User: Fold this.
Amino acid sequence: MDRQPNGMITLLTDFGLSDPYVGIMKGAIKRYHPRAEIIDLCHAVPAQNVEIGAFFLASAVGQFSPGTVHLAVVDPGVGMDRRMLVIYCQDCLWVGPDNGVLEGVLPADDRPSEVRCVDIDGLGLPVPSNTFHGRDLFAPVAAMISRGQYGFRALGPRIEDPVRGRSIKELGLRVLCADGFGNLITGITAREVSELGITAIEVAGLRVPLCSAYGEVEVGTALAVLNSYGLVEIAINGGNAASSLGVSDGDLLEVVTEEES
Assistant:
C-alpha cells in the first residue's frame, strides 16, 4: 500500500444519537489526531445487526477520496476474543471488528484487497473496557492510521481467514431493510434485473411493477425502482411502503419476469 491517508475518517455504528457514545468516539479520535476530519456515515444501523452494517459500509466504496479511513463499529462481540482488522481496498483503509461487518471490502474475484490483523498490544494502547472498544481501541487505531503514525503493513500480520458475512447475492430475494422514507431495500441487483428480465416484484400479496422513477405511478401507488445502491427497492409514491405494506426486514419476495408477465 502506497496511498497516504488524507486525514478524513468516516464513522459507521449502531449507537444511534440518543446517547453520548458517538460524541465520545469522536473525542477519542481527536485526542490522537486533532486535525482529523470526521464524517458521520451512519449511526442508525439496527442494534447489533452486522449484515445491515456491512451493507451500509459497502455503500461507501468508491464514494470518498483516496486515503480515507473508514471505521465501522457494529460489534456484538465487544469484550470477547475477536480480532480487529484493517483492510486496504479501493485506495482506502477500512477498520472494524472481525465479525463480517467488513464483508463488502474483503477480497473477492472482482475486488482485490489486503487484510491485516491489528496488533493491539504492539500499539501501546491502555487496557480497554469490556463494553466500549469503539472508544478505547477502534477510534484510536483509526486516528493513528489517519495521521500517518503507523503504515498499513506495520499494524499487524496479513491474514487470509477473516470472518465472512453474507454477500448481497447470498441474502437473496428478501427485504434487507427499510430506509428513513419507508422504502424497502431488497437484495435484488441491477444485474439480476437485466439478466432475468424482471418486470415486477411480489410482496405481501401485491404485484409491484418495476419502474424507472417514482413519478411513473400515481401518488399512493406502490412501485419498484432501481435505487442509488444499484438494488431494487419497493416504494410508495408519496408514502411509506414499510408501514403501508406491513413488511419487515428479512421478509421474502418473489420476482416476475418478462416470460411470466
